[in-house]
Amino acid sequence: MMTTTTHNLASLGEFGFIARLRQKLRDQAGRTDVVLGIGDDCSACTLPAGELLLTSTDLLIENIHFRRDWTSLYALGRKSAAVNLSDIAAMGGTPRYLHLGLGLPQDLALDELDAFCDGFLDECRAAGALLCGGDTCRSQTGMFISVSVQGTVPADQLVRRSGGQPGDRLYVSGTLGDSALALHLLRQGQAPPPTLARRHHQPTPRLALGRAVAVAGLAHAMIDLSDGLLADLGHILQQSQLAACLDPAALPLSADVRRHLNHQPEDLDVVLRGGEDYELLFSAPPEAAPRLEQLAVRLALPLTAIGSLQPGEGLWLCRPDGSRQPVEARGFNHFQSGQPA
Amino acid sequence: MMTTTTHNLASLGEFGFIARLRQKLRDQAGRTDVVLGIGDDCSACTLPAGELLLTSTDLLIENIHFRRDWTSLYALGRKSAAVNLSDIAAMGGTPRYLHLGLGLPQDLALDELDAFCDGFLDECRAAGALLCGGDTCRSQTGMFISVSVQGTVPADQLVRRSGGQPGDRLYVSGTLGDSALALHLLRQGQAPPPTLARRHHQPTPRLALGRAVAVAGLAHAMIDLSDGLLADLGHILQQSQLAACLDPAALPLSADVRRHLNHQPEDLDVVLRGGEDYELLFSAPPEAAPRLEQLAVRLALPLTAIGSLQPGEGLWLCRPDGSRQPVEARGFNHFQSGQPA
Which pairing describes strands A43-45 and A130-139: parallel, antiparallel, or unpaired? Predict the structure, then answer.
């Protein structure tokens, strides 16, 4: 679907862009759940009877959330959908429909816009979700991306942040810190290893895991890791009104992160506080352990116990020798950091 | 809910802002249709059984869609919700839930942010709709507002753009061109009359009209006027595969617009092509006329027949003397205009 011409948006126009996008969506034509897609005042869609409507919205702003010289537009398109789909995963839901708002610089090349849309739609397709509408306008100051995702979940399968129980084990999927370390290296002017770069630029929403955990009722509380492990665990603690112990030695780390920490152990903070893992963090009762082990095998996705929920307040790093060190449940704060991207 | 201190966002922080917003939403606590509002990965809401989910999303970008020196932040908050609610009206739906994405300059004063939120929530309340979630981040380049609205409509009451029939009369609600003329004057450095300024800065979504027309089955096709009368009528013509005649003498104009056109008749184009009326344009069979007259009285909202749909293609200004002048179904194009706001 790429074009080799160098047209830009000014020559295409708003309605030309919408027509072009509709062409890319021809494979949605068979979906009877969408009564009206792009092209009316609203989309009109059906939902499974009796299920709750889940909705999340995320902004991605150029030079705040991404830099165009660090990412391909295709990866950015995938990521824009993925970070939203991850929120549906965190509730145990099934993703259904996406709406895309785009503020576009007038000089954006048409093949870059095509690459963005192709990435966005590929990520939607991989999740079985459909782009049903949106809004586009020009921007005088870089790309603005606003994505809204809708999913559904049977009411008795909804997994909240607030459901944690004392004695629950804390699990995370995948590995932690890959994305944050990639960003850390990019900011220092270094090229991150390709596996880390991919984890940063093109994260994978853990939809199958979230859904499986919800269907089987294995998790009491769940969240996706977008703001960093400590901050996102902090949300569970605050809403479940509990404390937690984390074993830093138990954190699942990729070979690349492990190698880096061997040389620069002080960067453990990047792993603990850096965001954008888009893994799931959930609390589960100890008796769920065997079924979670089976689930990890079935999904070919590591699930690692990294600590536990406890009565009280606070967050501690607890080492096997019995020592406890309090840590602040804090990650990246959008209004307090002065550092772009 | 205003504060007189001069705190800004950097001192409040992202989660401080979210906590503040939740305080403003305490009156939603009794709504049992919202299972989870702000504060989890997704909102979780119920919908009336068997109804279609309607969704629309709109972007408002500073210096493209608005200028902070021309509007109060309270009015901007109301407008941000209103322009989205208007899309629900255009489908004949009932608005339910909104999600708000905000990119905020770090120096935005907290009382300005409060005013924006108060306006947004007042508009939601007036529509019986609830703010259920969103995303906030800092912006290096002015305010960036992304709103997503959800509503519902029984499937047999959905009013599309594509349903127009030859012989239908074309109706518009309210008056046309007030908003566009206000903007035209602002751009020329003049202060618009207060009634026009209010129509531009704080438009009224025609929710009761859209719903009444849908319930009674009075309209074949409907759209809200955001891009300008000619452009939006063009969408109905394109999707209904029909032509239209408009009688320019029949256009409903406010006293302020009429007075302006007396002196500057060349500005009729501002009325025909200028956007942001947020009135409803719909096509209805001639036999619906008596019921539409009753509806106009009941809602205290003028409904004016301004032309008709005809077989074929094209858009004409048709005068009572029988003369026909072709016009282009074109309004404001976001990527081709070089003029901000």
Answer: unpaired
Instruction: Tell me whether residues A43 and B36 touch, CB distance under 8 A.
Output: no
Provide the token pair at B154.
């029984």
Among A283-297, B111-125, B320-334, which stretch is predicted with the lowest mean pLDDT? B320-334
Amino acid letter, residue A142: G
Kindly provide the ipTM of the predicted complex, given to two decimals.
Answer: 0.92
Other C-beta atoms closer than 10 Å to the C-beta of B292 total 22
Of A62 and B341, the one with more pLDDT = A62
| Alpha helices (runs of H) in chain B, residue ranges in sequence order | 9-12, 14-24, 73-90, 110-126, 178-187, 194-201, 207-215, 229-240, 255-263, 268-273, 289-299
Nearest to B59 among A49, A93, A146 (CB): A146
Helix locations, A202-320, DSSP H: 207-215, 229-240, 255-263, 268-273, 289-299
DSSP string, B264-292: -GGGHHHHHH------EEEEE-GGGHHHH
* Better pLDDT: A85 or A142: A85
Supply φ then ψ for residue B84, to 5 degrees.
-80, -45
Give chain B positions within 8 Å (CB) of A52: 35, 44-46
Q: Is B339 helix (H, G, I), strand (E, B) or coil?
A: coil
Q: What is the mean pLDDT of chain B?
A: 91
Identify the CA nearest to A170 among candidates A250, A257, A255: A250
Among B11, B22, B40, B235, most A C-beta atoms within 10 A, so best to mutate, is B40
Output the six-digit token pair for A105. 């610089």
Task: Label residues A222-237 b or e (16+ Cβ within 10 Å = b).
Answer: bbbbbbbbbbbbbbbb
Domains and CATH numbers, chain A: 13-157 (3.30.1330.10), 169-326 (3.90.650.10)
Q: Are A101 and B58 in contact (CB under 8 A)?
A: yes
Report how far residue B70's alpha carbon sits from residue A290's, in angstroms, rounded to the nearest whole number: 62
A–B CB contacts, 8 A cutoff, strictly below: 235
Contact A66, A185 (CB under 8 A): no
With CB atoms and an 8 Å threshold, state whether A53 touches B150: yes
> Which residue is closest to B278 within chain A, CA to CA?
A41
Instruction: Tell me the Cα Rg of chain A.
Output: 21
Angle of CA points B218, B223, B224, to nearest 5°: 115
Grade residue B320 by pLDDT with cuts at 50, 70 and 90: confident
pLDDT tier for residue B313 given thresholds of 50, 70 and 90: very high
CB B230 within 8 A of CB B329: yes
Find, among B159, B170, B287, B286, the residue nearest to B212 by Cα: B159
Distance CA A88, CA A278 (A): 11
Task: Of A137, A146, A141, give the one whose Cα is nearest residue A68.
Answer: A141
